[in-house]
Design goal:
208 residues; mainly alpha; TorD-like; 10 helices; 73% helix; globular
């Protein structure tokens, strides 16, 4: 494997990890800690089609008032009345108003199979979009780690788990979720985040 190919694989890890971070409550630290610079750098390594979205996200975050970002985040993901883009896989997969349904239980089985445990400080459900993007990051990390170690068995295990996760979970609901998010967002930051998330997840799902 060439150095360029390895950099691209590591950048795929970063894309998922950084996108997950964007689904937490917006705060100035996002920009101050270089989140968007790192996101743009990773996008350039993986796919030029991702670059306009990553670049626009950073520009929109810096240009939008903090209160406007927080209001949009709240409207989209929290409510308190109608949640405009419910960030939970079970809502989209099970078509029910309650959470922690069959799809969530199946997701937890995948977590167990991968040896992944939710952080006790994480106050969201395991099928929240941020948690699923972090799980995708973990699976890509495991793939890359096994590849560097020359462990074909572990590499294949991680690859198969990732394919199952995307075909049965995140890859199935990211499209309608991103459409709801893009259609209801009032800030360009969240519209661009929706578009980039969908493209990254769909590209990972298409990999074999």
């Amino acid at each position: 494997m060439t150095e360029t190919e390895m950099r691209e694989k590591l950048a795929r890890e970063d894309l998922c990890r950084l996108l997950a971070a964007c689904y937490y409550e917006p705060e100035p630290a996002f920009a101050a800690e270089g989140l968007f610079d790192n996101l743009l750098a990773a996008a350039r390594q993986v796919d030029e089609a991702f670059v306009p979205h990553a670049q626009a996200m950073g520009e929109a975050f810096r240009a939008t008032a903090a209160q406007a970002l927080l209001l949009d985040y709240t409207r989209l993901f929290l409510g308190p009345m109608d949640i405009l883009a419910k960030p939970y896989g079970s809502v989209w997969l099970d078509q029910e108003k309650t959470l922690m349904n069959d799809s969530t239980m199946a997701l937890l089985d995948l977590h167990k199979e991968a040896g992944f445990e939710m952080d006790e400080e994480f106050r969201e459900l395991p099928d929240h979009v941020a948690a699923e993007l972090e799980f995708l990051y973990l699976l890509i990390f495991r793939e890359n780690e096994a590849l560097r170690a020359g462990d074909t068995t572990k590499h294949e295990q991680a690859r198969v788990l990732k394919r199952r996760f995307l075909s049965q979970h995140l890859g199935r609901w990211i499209g309608p979720f991103a459409a709801a998010m893009h259609g209801n967002a009032q800030t360009d930051f969240y519209r661009q985040l929706a578009d980039l998330t969908e493209k990254v997840v769909k590209q990972e799902a298409a990999r074999r």
